[in-house]
What we know:
CATH topology of the largest domain in chain A: Nucleoside Triphosphate Pyrophosphohydrolase
Oligomer: homodimer
Order of helices and strands of chain A: EEEEHEEHEHEHHEEH
Protein name (chains A, B): NUDIX hydrolase
Largest interface: A-B, 43 and 43 residues
Distance between the termini of chain A: 39 Å
Pfam families (chains A, B): NUDIX (PF00293), WHD_NrtR (PF21906)
InterPro entries (chains A, B): NUDIX_hydrolase-like_dom_sf (IPR015797), NUDIX_hydrolase_dom (IPR000086), WH-like_DNA-bd_sf (IPR036388), WH_DNA-bd_sf (IPR036390), WHD_NrtR (IPR054105)
CATH class of the largest domain in chain A: Alpha Beta
Radius of gyration of chain A: 19 Å
Keywords (chains A, B): Hydrolase
GO molecular function (chains A, B): hydrolase activity
Number of domains of chain A: 2
Amino acid sequence: MKYSSQTRLLVAVDCVIFGFDGTDYKLLLIQRGFAPEKEKWSLMGGFIQPNESADEAASRILEQLTGLTEVYMEQIQAFSTPERDPIERVIALPYVALIDIEKYKTQINDDFHARWYNIKSLPNMIFDHKEMVELALNKLRYKAAFHPILFELLPEKFTLPQLQAMYEGLYDTKIDKRNFTRKVLSTNLLKKENEKDKSSSKKGAFYYSLDEEHYKENFTNIHNFIPRNEIPVGNE
Amino acid sequence: MKYSSQTRLLVAVDCVIFGFDGTDYKLLLIQRGFAPEKEKWSLMGGFIQPNESADEAASRILEQLTGLTEVYMEQIQAFSTPERDPIERVIALPYVALIDIEKYKTQINDDFHARWYNIKSLPNMIFDHKEMVELALNKLRYKAAFHPILFELLPEKFTLPQLQAMYEGLYDTKIDKRNFTRKVLSTNLLKKENEKDKSSSKKGAFYYSLDEEHYKENFTNIHNFIPRNEIPVGNE
DNA sequence: TGGTATAGTGTAAAAAATACAGTTAATAAT
DNA sequence: ATTATTAACTGTATTTTTTACACTATACCA
């Protein structure tokens, strides 16, 4: 028994993969290996296979490219206009992923000719991939203002100046150090380590790490990481 | 030229249609007319047709059932586990819709044996429709705390007590009248009318209406309609 | 005319957010 | 050894926002 009279469609997931290099946000793009728009830049994507869910497909595709698993990913809105892919109709389910750019370096898969692009100077991209990136960025900016998702981009140990730079990078703004520190520490998500990171100053900055227990419990809580007037007008 | 080797899948939209009757939130369900689970309760849904986007499909399906167009609708997360529909694999794109329950009454399509169910006592539903409803409710609770979406459920003219009842219903809580009024009016989204609604008290309550200009401009702004501790831990 | 039921209104206290600048620590240079 | 340098670190006063809380006003009805 089947829904026999109905039209079936291709369904793909596309991964909007962001990384942060300490100063700037980067987007991981690949060079499309086949026509149309061969060699133009594209999000890493792939069709959903018969035996997998969209989430599984997204993880699979992310792993193919980066070698990484257990990465923060979130589905964003489906793209479904009939003409979006000129070859054949494809419904796209985009996912945002945040990865620690350092971890990626060790596992890169060169088959795809991937490259990090600064989000401030993205190349032309195929189809509606640019829109997907905009949507993903918007969602990220909105969500990161209230939830500690950016912490996913950090290595195990990180400093408060690093964390602040991540927020400043995402919103392209300067944040007062004292106020930022106070807000972040008041969430109780962080544990102070005894060690210092000396790589960026003579004095050195203390390392912090996620207090895993509090982090998971309080992940969905509403925090306030950045000043109100920096939050983009968002709809998510 | 086609992506010939790939599997194509059915893609459906399902509409999670909420209404508010002045006291309670209701969900519009239909009795499924075909097997499996014939006559069990179901969200109104339908397959995406070759010539339409998911948004268009959702509008079409909503109109089929309710006769209503230009309704607030928003896509929520795709449901895609391979086994969710026992007949054949279907990717579902659920949409939340908010409709003015009074408007619906005049346009109801009886073909579908639709019924409003109080969200506090929902019947068993087919497949994963219950999960969709939970997700939709959660998203609604989260979003309505910051954005004036519930205003979509109101008739053209409404009173502050009515508006407050809508918020109290959604969060199942009591809100202080003075604080609520102050917050709502400070958004500048409302215009006070000279007329009163006498239907619910002897004194009568003044009507308000949306200040359309401010409403559209400020829709995406972040407001604060309900007390912090009533906002459900949400992730959207 | 008094009773009744809901609408409407203000203020003080607490909490949160903001604006703002000098001190500290470690290293490097002299 | 002293000094210079650079980024990390820290506190307070002010403003704004949020909360808690209770009495008066209005219109109808008996």
